[in-house]
Structure formats: structure tokens, C-alpha cells
Write a structure and sequence with these properties.
single chain, mainly alpha
Length: about 325
């Protein structure tokens, strides 16, 4: 019952923290919209400029000053911004760093006050929870890129058909926005708008390849740029490229089917120690408390978890075959 109560308390604390954070950001966004509609934002801007003058960027990042200082000091802004754009999130780099700091503080305080573990271990628990917002963005990015790659062959065939029908290449990019779903429509609409606003199409396509780090997109951009320099039938090139991408998907599916047994084995071997630890916690609690209360037990627990993670990563690397 003790373990179950702790799990319930952890779940309730996580839900409460998520509710407070989401409410904070929603209220912040609502305040910004109200200021823009009523004109208060401009009045406040003029007042601050008369007092000594801070830019609008500093006004919007007032709640994340410490996170903004970290981003500027270590020059992480462009990389984090690109990472967020690839995930399709309209966050600022300071917001992501701020969420990581909040996750560390909340979990560290919970482990320090409630969990019966040493204080040093509570700090490690907080450090382990700090990358949670980063992991959320990473999973969003991976899911978005997979959706893009799944629709991308059809997109290439659509561009090829529209060019055969007499449309220009730039017009075909605009038509993708109306015919396809996200994230393909948004990315190609941004590429079209950049070119329509005066940016060279080569630079706009290179920006697309940078925002979507996929080998298929790099092939597409290289094919378009090479055709513009040397000439040729771009529609036929795109049809063949779509065929090659589909064949790669088929081969990747076969490899996943063959390596499914290895992935299942890695997952099972990684879950066995956790299941044994839970069973021992209920059958012989005094034996398990040694790993939390004794200093040597803490070192053994940390070493066991580290080796378990390393073993899982090695097994996953073995069965992960890129095509």
C-alpha cells in the first residue's frame, strides 16, 4: 500500500503542476491578445521607452529572464529554435529552458520533502526529471517528421502532375497547402511564401531542408536545384524520386519486421529488473530498503540503473538498422 500511495501522490502532483503551468501560459497568451486588441501594449511600450527603453522582446520574455540569460550566455537560441520549429511548436527557446528548470524544481522539492530517500539522491531525481519538457519536444518532433515522410511521396507525385498540367513549380508549391494535411502543407506554404516575398527559391528550398532533416527532402531539394542549373524534365525526376522513397519505405518495413524480435527481447530484459524490484518491495521490504537507506546500497542502486540503461541502449543500437 505504501508504494501505491506514493504513486498516487506523484501522479496528483504531476497533474497539479501541469494544470498550473498550462493555466499560466494560457493566461499569459490571453493577456497579450487583450493588450494588442485594446492598444495597451503600445502604451506600455511607450512608457517603458520613456523611462529608459526596453524592447518589446524583453517585455514578452519578462517571465523567463533567468532562462533567457542562460540561452543568451551559452548561445543556444538558434539551435533550440530550430529544434522547436521541427517539432511544430510555437515556443521560444527561453520557454523550453524555463520549463526544464520548473520540472527540476518541482520534482526535487517533491523528492526532498515526501520521498524517503537521501537528499543527494533527491537532487539526482530532480536532474533526471529536468529533461522532461525536452523529451516532450523530441517526441513531438519525431512524430511530426514521420507524418511528413509518410505523405511526402504523394506530395512529389502531386507536384509532378501539376507541372505536367502546365503549372509552374512555385504554383505547385502553393497548391500543396490546399490539397494536403499538416505538416506537409505548412512547410511547403512557408517555402512558397518565402519565395513569393522575394527570397530566392534556392534559399527557400534550403530552408525547407533545414527545417525537415530528412534524407528524402534533401534528395528533393538537390534534384530541384540541379534541374534549375542543368535543365531536364523535373516532373519525371520527381516521379522517380517518389518511387525510390516508396521502395525505401517497403524495405524499412521488412527490416522492422525482422528486428521486432530483438526489440522485444531488449524491452523484456530491461523490464525484468523493475518487476523483480517491485515484487521484492512487497515480499521483503527490509531487503529493498537497504538500497535506499544505506550509502553502499545507494551506490549499488545507481550503478545498477546506469548499467541497465547502457545495456538497453546497446541492444537498441544493435537492432536499429537505418535504410
Amino acid at each position: 500500500m505504501g508504494f501505491l500511495s506514493v504513486a498516487i501522490v506523484v501522479w496528483l502532483a504531476a497533474m497539479a503542476a501541469w494544470y498550473v503551468i498550462s493555466k499560466y501560459f494560457k493566461s499569459s497568451d490571453a493577456d497579450k491578445i487583450k493588450q494588442r486588441l485594446t492598444g495597451l501594449g503600445k502604451a506600455r511600450k511607450k512608457t517603458r521607452e520613456s523611462k529608459g527603453g526596453q524592447s518589446i522582446i524583453h517585455t514578452q520574455q519578462a517571465g523567463n529572464k533567468f532562462a533567457q540569460l542562460l540561452v543568451e550566455k551559452y548561445q543556444m537560441g538558434p539551435k533550440i529554435q530550430l529544434f522547436l520549429e521541427q517539432a511544430g511548436l510555437k515556443w521560444s527557446p527561453a520557454r523550453l529552458v524555463h520549463l526544464c528548470i520548473m520540472a527540476f524544481g518541482a520534482v526535487f522539492a517533491f523528492a526532498w520533502v515526501i520521498l524517503p530517500i537521501p537528499k543527494a539522491l533527491a537532487f539526482l531525481v530532480g536532474l533526471a526529471a529536468a529533461p522532461a519538457p525536452f523529451l516532450y519536444v523530441w517526441f513531438q518532433r519525431r512524430s511530426r517528421l514521420r507524418k511528413f515522410e509518410a505523405i511526402f511521396p504523394e506530395t512529389l507525385e502531386f507536384i509532378s502532375r501539376s507541372m505536367r498540367a502546365g503549372h509552374a513549380f512555385s504554383v505547385s508549391l502553393e497548391m500543396i497547402y490546399r490539397e494536403f494535411a499538416e505538416p506537409v502543407s505548412g512547410e511547403f506554404r512557408r517555402t512558397f511564401e518565402e519565395g513569393n516575398l522575394g527570397l530566392p527559391i534556392e534559399v527557400a528550398l534550403q530552408g525547407l531542408a533545414k527545417r525537415v532533416p530528412s534524407l528524402d527532402v534533401h534528395f528533393f531539394v538537390s534534384a530541384v536545384l540541379l534541374q534549375k542549373r542543368t535543365g531536364g524534365n523535373l516532373a519525371e525526376i520527381l516521379d522517380k524520386l517518389a518511387y525510390v522513397i516508396r521502395e525505401r519505405f517497403k524495405l524499412r518495413g521488412r527490416i522492422r519486421a525482422v528486428s521486432a524480435h530483438g526489440k522485444m527481447t531488449a524491452t523484456t530484459l530491461s523490464c525484468i529488473p523493475i518487476a523483480v524490484a517491485v515484487l521484492m518491495f512487497y515480499t521483503n521490504p527490509t531487503y529493498v530498503k537497504f538500497f535506499f537507506e544505506d550509502e553502499v546500497g545507494n551506490m549499488m542502486l545507481a550503478a545498477g540503473i546506469g548499467l541497465q540503461v547502457i545495456g538497453y541502449l546497446i541492444m537498441k543500437k544493435i537492432v536499429n538498422i537505418e535504410v
